[in-house]
Amino acid sequence: MDVLYRDERAASAASSVAGRLVADGVPARLAAGDPTLWGREGSEAPRDAEAWADGLPFRASRELLPELGELAEQARAAGLTTVVLAATDGAALAAEVICDTADVPLTVLDTSDPGQVRRALAEPLESTVIVVAGPAVETDCCLRIYEERFAAAGIDAAQRIVAVAVPGSPLQRRAVERGYRLVPSSAPGTPSPAGGPGPASPAGGWGAAVPTAALVAAALAGADVARLLDDAEEVLPLLSRDSGNPGLALGAVLGGAALGGRDKLLLEDQLSAIAGLPDWIEWLVAASTGKRGKGILPVVGADPHRAHDELVVAIESDIGDVRVDGPLGAQFLVWQYAAAVAALLLEVDPAERPDQAEPAGTTEALLALPELPAGAPALVDGPVEVYGLVTAKDLPGVFIELLHALPADGYLAVTAYLDRLAAFDAPVPDGADFEQMTDAWMMADPATLRALLALRTDRPVTFGWGPRSLHATGQYHNGGPQNGVFLQITGAVAEDVAVPGKPYTLGRLQLAQALGDLEALETRGRPAVRLHLTDRAAGVAHLLAAAQEV
After folding, report:
1. What is the dihedral angle through the alpha carbons of 547, 548, 549, 550, rounded to the nearest 10 degrees?
2. What are phi and psi of 63, to 5 degrees?
3. What is the rounded distance in angstroms from the CA atom of residue 55 to the CA atom of residue 31?
C-alpha cells in the first residue's frame, strides 16, 4: 500500500503536521483504539470507536469467515441468486464497491424512492435473499415490504431474510421473534445474544471500514471477502508505525492541507480497477470531519480547476496531487485511519454525528402531520416547480442566481430525491452503439446536472442521491463550514408503494425526508432551492436543457 505526494504544496502540508503527530504518539495510539486522543475516557467512547481495539475491526471480521461461507453455500444450494441489501451509511456503500469491483450482482436499497424499490421487487422473489441492517427508517420500510411480499407469495421469510443486528436492538429482537438468520454485529469482545464474545465489527459508523452487513451481502453475492480481509490484514501492522505508515501519510496530507486552506478534496479514480471507491470515501470523510464548523468537503467526479482550496487525490493514477495505490481491502482500512488522523488535526471527533439526527427528527414530525407542508411554488417552468426565495423568471435564471450566491470559498451541492437507476430506462435508438447508449443515459440522468453547472463556475459542485446523502454528506452540510449553496430535486410519484404497518407510503416518506433535509439547511441561513418535477422524465430533460442555457 503506497501513498505518494506528487505536489510540493501537498508534501509541505503533510510534513508540517506529521512530526507533531509522531511526537504525540498518534500512530500507535490510534491503531490501539485510544479514545483519549479525542479527550474521551474509555467508558465514554462510542461503541463504534471501540472496534479499533485489538487491531481494528478486520481481525474480528475474520472470525465471521466460516459463517459467511456457510451462508453463501446455503444460498447457492437453495438457488438464491438475487441478493438485496437493505442498509444505509458505510454498509451500503462498502458493499456496492466490493461487489462492483468483483463484478458480482447486488441490489442495494438505501432509498425510500418507490420506483427504485419497485425495480428491486420486480426481481423473482423465489430466488431472492435480503440482508437487513441498521435502524434507518428506509431500511425498516424495505424490510416490512419484503416481509409482506414473501408472505403473499407463500415463501417462508425466515429462509430469506438475514438480519445483521447489534445485540439488544429492535432489529435483533425482531429477527429472534420471527426466526430470521441472525448475524450479530458488535464491537470485539461485546457479548453476543448467546453469551459468547461478539464475532463481528459494528454494523455501521466510523468504527468499521467494512461493516458486517457489507461482508454478509458481498459474500452472498459471490465476492471473495476472504481476499478482501487478507489485503487489509497485510497493511494492518503498518498503521502503528511512525514511518512507512500509509494511513499516517494520507491522513497528514488531508488534515495538513485542510489546515492550510485546501479543504476541498477532489477524488479521482478514472484509471482504477476499483469501482466506485470515491463514493465510499465521500461518506467517510464528510461524516468524520464535517462538524463544529470545520471539515473537509469530498467532491466526486469533478474536473479540478486548480483552485487555491483544492487537493486532488487519485486512486492508482498520477492525475492528482496525491496518489494512493493498493488493493481494495487495504484502501478501506488506510482511508479510515487517514480520516481519523485528519479529524484529529481539525480537532473534531470522527465518531460523533452531532447534526445527523436533526433531519431525521424533522422527517418524523412531518410524517405525523395530515399533509406535508410543501408550500406554494415561487415559479413554474414547464414540468418543474421552483420552491424557495428566488427572483428569477425561469429555470436558467434560477441556476444563475444560485451560482452567483456561491462564496469565494464555497460550493454548490445538488441532491436528488429520485430513482438513481431510472436513467437506464431511457429510450435508446435502434442499433445504437455503446457511445450513443451512454449519451442517451446521461441526458436522462439528473447527475448530469452537476457536470453542466460545474462548467459555469470555478467552485466545486457536488451531487448526491437522497436519502443516501443524509447519511453521508448530510453531516458535513449541516455541521461543517457554512459556505454551501443547495439545490434539491424532488419528483412526483406515478406508482407509489405502501409501507405495511405504517400510515404512510414510500413516496410520502421520500418527500418528508427531502423537506426535513431542506429545513435543516434553511435554519442555518444557507441559500437553498427545491425543484419539484411534476413529471420525472420530462422534468429531468427540462432541467438539463435549462442548465445548458446558463
Report:
1. 60
2. -65, -20
3. 6
Between CA 112 and CA 135 the distance in angstroms is: 14
- Kind of pairing between the strands at 411-416 and 461-465: parallel
- The pLDDT tens digits for 446-493 are 999 999 999 999 999 999 999 999 888 999 999 999 999 999 999 999
Contact 106, 99 (CB under 8 A): yes
Nearest Cα residue to 27 out of 243, 351, 175: 243
For residue 352, what pLDDT is reported?
Answer: 86
C-alpha cell at 502: 405504517
How much is the pTM?
Answer: 0.92
Kindly state the cell numbers that stand for 532.
Answer: 419539484
Contact 209, 215 (CB under 8 A): no
Strand order in the sheet with 161-165: 107-109, 82-86, 128-133, 161-165, 181-184
**For the segment 223-233, what is each residue's pLDDT rounded down to a tens digit?**
999 999 999 98
Binned at pLDDT 50, 70 and 90, residue 41 comes out as low
Residue 226 CB partners (closer than 8 Å, separation 6+): 65
| Alpha-carbon span 308 to 293, nearest angstrom | 20
Can you tell me the distance from the alpha carbon of 303 to that of 450, in angstroms, rounded to the nearest whole number? 11
Question: Which amino acid, residue 138?
Answer: E
> Over the stretch 8-18, which tens digit does the pLDDT of each residue have?
999 999 999 99
d(CA 345, CA 541): 44
What is the residue-averaged pLDDT of the chain? Answer: 89
CA 174/CA 180 separation, integer angstroms: 8
Lowest-confidence region among 177-181, 300-304, 442-446: 300-304
Dihedral angle over CA of 166, 169, 170, 172, nearest 10:
40
SS3 call for 550:
coil
pLDDT confidence band for 208 (50 / 70 / 90): low
**Cross-strand partners of 165:** 184
Q: 407: cis peptide before it, omega within 30°?
A: no
